[in-house]
Fold this protein.
Amino acid sequence: MNYLIYFKYDGLGARLVNLSYYFYLANRLGNKNFVKFAWLNTEGFKKAHLSTDFKGKDGVKTIGFCVMEKEEIFSPTFIKKYYIDKLPKRDFDINTFKNFDELQEKFLSVDNANFITIGPPRFVNEDDMTDRLRIENAFNKDIEFSDNVKAIIKEAKNKALEFNDYNVINLRAGDVVYFGNCRKKDEIIFRATYFELALQIIKANPNKKFIISSEDVESVDKLCDFVNSKNVISANKIRDWKRPNLELFFFDIAFMSCAKELYSSATSSVPQLARYMNKNIKGINTLRYFSEEQRYEFLKKNIDILNLHPMQKALSYFHLFILARNLKENYDILIYYLRQALKNDLDNDKYRIHIIANLVLKQEYKKANRYLSFIFNTRYNEFISLFFEFQINTLTNDFLNAKINSKFPYLCFLNAKIANHKKLHEKAINFAKMAYDNGDLQIIKELYLSLSIEYALHLKQELNVLKTRLVKLENDINTYDNAKNRIKNHLAYKFGRALIENSKSIKGYIKLPFI
């Protein structure tokens, strides 16, 4: 028998969403028993902000991560039927198939094969209503929860009956804002919703009743207190945020599912599960509710009005930067927003990276170089690590296309590392040479030496083939009596001789780019 095997190192919401996808695929293939799942809780989930009992630190009250053991979430029958205690050999990666038809063709043509991938199958499309309904059915009919989870869901739905015709604004704003390294990624803006946007939605709908839900306990209460309306209620007044995280997780999903409208970021799994639970709920993407111009003007005027935690303010300023950039504001304004974000979250090098990038785009190379010098002397490892982990693909051209020279050694150094990362060997060694000529940091000298040797080895591989051809060509030239001297004085011939002479040692290879 073939199996679709699911596992993912992530929070409970993402795991349940993706497990629903696998049951959806199995049902389309004809048998839900094709599904098996592993429940892997790594050491990483024991970190403070990822632990199952985390409620915040340093004065920040948040509802923490929720990755419990499988026995607390699923029924014994479900676990016995679908759970595997370790991952088997992967025969096929589901994400190598472009669509369901390709998967089906392979699945039905082999025997005793394991189809495994980390996370969701990329070809599953929830925008397709037929697929969406099948996924919702899989979540509601095929996943069986523990008695405790069922009781929490029932409790939340009963509580919802006390409220008439309400809407929910869900703000993802816990670990993604305060504690996790994920806050240092650009794409966080698609997951974490800034609180001023919730205020804008409330002001645009004065006659609607809103329940405000978020992991950020204090910011929710501040927003509701600021609005001061009987139509805007904090979820903390409906359930006690000090309850175990597992109970809060399922209570919030069930309570949201009873709303008329659910406002949330498109990529947040908790409201996604609420929509699975109730197919009639109207889901609204908070980032698309207003135009970018409307969001920009409102946020610009109200960014200080709620008096939120500095980390929340940093997120709001980064949203402001992205909006301003999309609307073609000038570089001075963009850099101002980034500096404000950095002031509120000094440990986040994402803002430093974008400040440098915008100084380069503005062609203020002297300022960019001076700022990089300061960064390299104070937090080089943190800056470089983040740059090459999260930012390299989006900012490469901004840096490599800059018209810089050896007057700006720190920019040249960064460009050398970018070019080397992209395997642009000649560019890398040229930038490294310019950095070496004027840079005084040991890391610059080390990079130049390292890239020189690396480039020499690269050249050696290519020149071994070329050298054989050149030697043969020289032998042929010696047969051309009268034309021999004219050919040997030709520039191309001289370059060929230089290749041969300088390819006899590593030192010679290092000299080659500068002959």
The chain has a mean pLDDT of 86.
